[in-house]
Amino acid sequence: MLKKLIYSGAIAMAAAIVATGCAHKPVGVTPIPPRPEANVGDQTAPTYPQQQLANQSVTSQPLAENGPFDPSKWTQDRDALAANTIHFAFDSAVIRDSETANLQAVAAALNSDKNLNLMIEGNCDERGTEEYNRSLGERRAEAAREALVGMGIDVNRLHTVSYGKDKPAEHGHDEAAWSKNRRDDFVLLHPKTGA
């Protein structure tokens, strides 16, 4: 009788496990969160006045695209603003307080010569899927673009691209490397003569 009872209990337990299934979350895969929509008149939608730039997340719709970028018309200067790269927290496109001075320096460089344009390159660390990192890199580049527009830079002078995890600044597999790879790089664009 005891054997029959134990056997029946084991069968019932196995049936319950099969019926409920096991929750399995893939390791190293981050789902793409939906991009929140900003409502007209929504007081929580971000604005980027110079003094209130930090800790704002990109919740508004992306700014209007300024047409296809034609690299043949521009000379790229990767060194001019290399010291002003901004970095992000893990899985975030929020511009932190510590990055405000770098963005202000980028805006000052653009204000010094109205002929200059800017390429904002969004980058991620190696974790996550290719698709997710492309999307996150895009949101990071758009966050910097919106911040610079809030500082008075004409949106038509700003171009964005996402490299996802394809262009690491540091080739390592730990937080020290990852923190350097979660970034926006700024490339000054000088118009080519006769272009």
Notes on the structure:
This protein has 195 residues and is α+β, with helices and mostly antiparallel strands. It has a domain at 70-195: 60s Ribosomal Protein L30, Chain: A (2-Layer Sandwich). Helices cover 31% and strands 15% of the residues. It is built from four helices and five strands. It has helices spanning 2-20, 100-112, 130-150, 175-181; strands spanning 74-77, 86-87, 117-123, 158-164, 183-191. Strands 1, 2, 3, 4 and 5 form a five-stranded mixed sheet that branches. Helix 3 links the parallel strand 3 and strand 4 (158-164). The longest helix is centred in the last third of the chain and has 21 residues, at 130-150. The termini are far apart. Mean pLDDT is 77; it is low at 16-65.
